[in-house]
Write a structure and sequence with these properties.
By secondary structure, the chain is of the alpha+beta class. It contains 4 helices and 4 strands.
Length: about 120
């Protein structure tokens, strides 16, 4: 399987509580409704918590600030992702999700990339 990892930062005009609420309660169901058209097998949201602990990790490594959360989406293969986005249904589902994400995600300060997992333990 392959996985899309999307590291999210909220828009400056969206409060943290509203960002997390909208992402979970509004956007999540939209992703679920688009899953078949996108041929996605699994979708997980990880919301950032423990700000004091995050600040410690950032300071100890000289890193940039923590993301507000990450999304992970799994597919059977890169070919499945490509094939799904090439269909009218998949393209429409993808466009709908990007439009919705623009309501709460700061695209310029977020990152997205495809990965292959290597389980260590």
């Amino acid at each position: 399987m392959v996985k899309l990892v999307y590291c999210l930062r909220r828009r400056a005009d969206v409060a943290p509580e509203e960002f997390h609420r909208y992402w979970l309660e509004e956007h999540g169901p939209k992703v679920k409704s688009a899953a078949a058209a996108l041929r996605a097998r699994r979708y997980v949201q990880s919301h950032t918590t423990a700000p004091e602990l995050n600040a410690m990790f950032v300071a100890s490594r000289g890193l940039g600030p923590a993301y507000d959360g990450i999304t992970e989406v799994w597919w059977d293969s890169v070919d499945d992702v490509t094939a799904a986005l090439a269909t009218p249904e998949g393209a429409a589902a993808g466009a709908m999700l990007v439009e919705d994400e623009s309501r709460f995600i700061d695209f310029a300060r977020s990152s997205v990339f495809m990965t292959t997992e290597h389980a260590i333990f």
